[in-house]
Write the structure tokens for this entry.
Amino acid sequence: MDNIAEKIILQAYLTPPKNVRDFDNIKRDVLRGIKNCSEIPRKNQILKVYHKLLKQGKIKKSIQLEQMMVKRSIRTLSGVAIITVLTKPYPCPGSCVYCPFEKGMPKSYLSSEPAAARAKMLKFDPYEQVARRTEALEMNGHPTGKIELIVKGGSWNAYPTHYQYWFILRCFEACNKRKQSLNEKQTDFLTIKKSILKEQKKNETAKHRIIGLTLETRPDLINEKTVMEMRDIGATRIEMGAQSTDDKILKKIQRGHDSLQTKKSMEFLKNAGFKVDLHIMPQLPGTTPKKDLEMMLELFKDPGYRPDMIKVYPCTVLENTVLYDWYKSGEYKPYSNKNLIEIISEFKNQIPYYTRISRLIRDIPSPHIKAGNKLTNLRQDIQKYMGENGMKCRCLRCREVGHIIEKNNDIKKEAPKLFIEKYNTRGGTEYFLSLEDKNRQAVFAFCRLRILDDFKKTKEEYKIFKPYPAYIRELHTYGQLLSFGSKNKQASQHKGMGQKLIKEAEKITTKHKAKKLAIISGVGVRGYYRQKLGYRLENGYMVKKLNI
């Protein structure tokens, strides 16, 4: 099989394929020339031989060719390698009627879900989860120099602080290739806290750098202490379950907080520079298709919400839940998938340019679902419906340049144009700066800038947390992931677009007479802001004094 893979690579090297289809044709041509051979080597087998030939000096490095051999290249098409880990089972403060409980799993997670299955197999060891997932991505040809670490499981802030710090310490150690670690139960908190700072420093120049850290929590667990702790360990984005904006529905499902608590928590998180990914649930008890559409659109009409990202998780009926009992007794009946597709399509048709719809369903295997949406391809069904009804989604995910050039290769030849969207939110004014094609079909890069409305007053309101007058809450360049320091004329990363957006953000901040601009930087990308733009580490943020 290695001999066949070598012939494929050498042929592709001599006559470089323009796309994956061309590469597949080369594989078939090689196969036709070999007698009694009908099996094509897998992509990871071909990639392994490619690296062998590269080491032997028989070929030169070709990023374009490497991308042809990457299995499921969409995993790094957004510019980062995403690694998801789960925390151990632990009691949750909530009692939501729809939430399942499986013994030996964090509440709301089932062992049959892909990431959950990996975590359980590895006994929820954070080091092993990160190390094994990184190895799997690399084996399939994905660059893993820039890692977006997503921590799921129970509500993060409900876990003991000692465990939180130890868990993240082990994740950093996995990226830094440090196998020996402190024992969670035998080490005092102060030692763990000092160790995590050391590992963060190492990760700034490590092979696998954590450039973003996402934690999952609830609105009623956000306060000054938890915000400071999340920044301490290097978190940059928070996923928060709002579920609904209707207080009657929140009370009915026993959510444990109201809509005002969600708005206050969003303001606090944004005032600390975090990106916020809000979870919402259509089809909950007490709602209708009309109410759900109004609820989803309210997220952008009400300045108290206006999230950066959204995950739409339609409510499903699972066994071992109160909702299952309601369903069996006839007290609850979800509306049809047809209605669900219609309202989500209308929602996507009206979504603003600055928001990304990350997910539309959870990875719950359909056999577990007793009622509600069972469509695993819901996103595709929605896209089909929108296409048939002249609708178009403007969310960031649908407009990533990496996705668009697959349909329209001419877009990457355009010089990106700067767009600036200004919108008000609770406690601050937001600026969404983006580099896009002239028709706003494709996004090359973007930056989220927040200016606090009344910095002096906000500063006085907080007792232990010290805010900054302005934040860059996110800077992202789309396109196939490149390692630090690498170049590729066909890729959109590493072309100075990030620096251009930062300079524009600094100009706007200066006009608001803010003396400092803070960036909620991932640990692994601190060096970029330090070396390229003159920012310095201060209280966990990369900060720059501005001349006003």
Notes: The chain has 19 helices and 16 strands. The radius of gyration is 24 Å. The first helix runs from residue 2 to 14. Residues 73-77, 480-488, 490-494 have pLDDT under 50 and may be disordered.
